[in-house]
Amino acid sequence: MVDVYASLELIRTDPAPHPCRACGLPTTNIWALTDSDAERLFYSEYRACSIHCAENLAHETAMYA
């Protein structure tokens, strides 16, 4: 499960825009969420137009993890 020590950062931009996975707006941004505990590393990438959309997608991932 994602906790307060998780890191959500913009890691790259693509040359062509694609829809944001949260709101559907065109975006070139790719965000990465990394988190770890004593036994494992969690890593996930999200196409999101803003930090707010990326946080929403990360929260959805945490709910189903």
What would you say this structure looks like, in words?
This protein is an alpha+beta fold and 65 residues long. It is built from one helix and three strands, in the order βββα. It has one helix at 51-64; strands at 7-19, 26-36, 41-47. A three-stranded antiparallel sheet has the order 1-2-3, with helices on one face. A hairpin with a 4-residue loop joins β2 and β3 (41-47). It starts with 6 loop residues before the first strand and ends with a helix.
Layout of helices and strands, plus pairs?
Blueprint lengths: L6 E13 L6 E11 L4 E7 L3 H14 L1
Antiparallel strand pairs: 1-2, 2-3
List keywords for this structure.
65 residues, alpha+beta, 3-stranded antiparallel beta sheet, 1 helix, 3 strands, 22% helix, 48% strand, elongated
Global mean pLDDT: 87
Q: Which strand-content bin applies to the residues?
A: over 45%
**Overall SS class:** alpha+beta
Order of neighbouring strands in the sheet with most strands: 1-2-3
Helix content: 10-25%
Q: Biggest β-sheet: count, sense, barrel? A: 3 strands, antiparallel
Characterize the overall form: elongated
N-to-C terminal Cα separation, in Å? Answer: 6 Å
- Report the count of strand segments: 3
- Unreliable residue stretches: none
Helix tally equals 1
- Output the radius of gyration: 12 Å
Number of domains: 1
Question: Could you state the order of secondary-structure elements as H and E?
Answer: EEEH
